[in-house]
Amino acid sequence: MIAYIVRRTLYAIPILIGVNLLTFVLFFVVNTPDDMARIQLGVRRVTAEAIEKWKAERGYDKPKFFNDQAQGTARLKDTIFYEKSVRLFVFDFGNADDGRSIRHEILTRMWPSLALQLPVFVLGLIAYVSFALLMAFFRGTYLDFGGVVLCVAMMSISGLFYIIGGQYLFAKVWQLVPISGYSGGLDAGKFLALPVAIGLVAGIGSGARWYRTVFLEEMSKDYVRTARAKGLAETAVMFHHVLKNGMIPILTGVVVVIPTLFMGALIMESFFGIPGLGSYTIDAIQAQDFSVVRSMVFLGSLLYILGLLMTDISYTLVDPRVRFT
């Protein structure tokens, strides 16, 4: 097990380096520091002196990969690539264009994102799997047909409709919850109730329909027919055999999502004014703060790779046939 984890971790390092190199090329080769300065200062009536000053204040006036004017290791370290890309591997994100520490913002904003995403994840998993089991248990009946139609209909509706409709109905018309905003502590519940409910409703169509497909595929296998031939009740077959063996494909989608909970929901946080990492990324894109966007891309890639590693490890917990060789 330990050897497998080490090997998978070593496999992930080149992937993360490749993502980091690609991000650097996109930000500093395709879109040069001069272009960044013009975007921040304004394309019209910007002088060359103003561009050079902006670059010097943020460390963009250095060579990209190799500094031939420096000595020793400074030839590699005193470069844009080392300062803006390599240091990300030690979680040195630097400062945003407004001077605030990106690392401090990430550590502060990750908790509102978790407060929103964790209930959606846990409650959604319970609701979607239960609904899918119900449809699979009554497969071929009007309940199954109606559930599939409902799932397809809900999948066809944009998530923005649920957000705008929920804000209008529950916050503006009925005034049950605040329309937007956030507060720490126990007061966060009244601000998170509506976005959590909308997150559950918006995902039930795709989630329940996919889990139903997984369970129906398991129900057609030989071990299920053998269990029925032995006289086991249908409920025992569904919950003891089908649900247990259906956990492998479910874990593939579930475990990967766990690390990304820290990143928050981009649209949800922006519409509800939740100061999480999702709204932080959206605000950085709108402000064209490339330092923040670059840091969030790196962090998202790292969390996704960790999710894939957790998925591989979790297979052994539900399927003893899986062996790490």
Task: Give a topology summary.
Elements: H1 2-30, H2 33-41, H3 48-58, H4 74-77, H5 80-84, H6 102-137, H7 142-156, H8 159-173, H9 188-219, H10 222-229, H11 234-245, H12 247-260, H13 266-272, H14 277-286, H15 290-318
How would you portray this structure in words?
With 325 residues, the chain is mainly alpha-helical. The protein has a domain at 111-301: MetI-like fold. 73% of the residues lie in helices and 0% in strands. Helix 1 (2-30) runs antiparallel to helix 15, helix 6 packs across helix 9 and helix 10 (222-229) runs antiparallel to helix 11. The longest helix has 36 residues, at 102-137.
- The pLDDT mean sits at 85
- CATH fold field value of the domain at 111-301: MetI-like fold
- Could you estimate the helical fraction of the residues in percent? over 70%
The amount of beta strand, in percent, is under 5%
What's the helix count?
A: 15
The sequence of SSEs as H and E is HHHHHHHHHHHHHHH
Alpha-carbon distance between the termini? 9 Å
The shape is: globular
At the first level of CATH, the class of the domain at 111-301 is Mainly Alpha
CATH architecture of the domain at 111-301: Orthogonal Bundle
What is the rounded Rg?
25 Å
Structural class: mainly alpha
Biggest sheet record? none
Low-confidence stretches: none
Total strands: the figure is 0
Question: What descriptors fit this protein?
Answer:
325 residues; 73% helix; MetI-like fold; mainly alpha
Summarize the structure.
By secondary structure, this protein is mostly helical. The protein has a domain of 191 residues: MetI-like fold (Orthogonal Bundle). The chain is 73% helix and 0% strand.
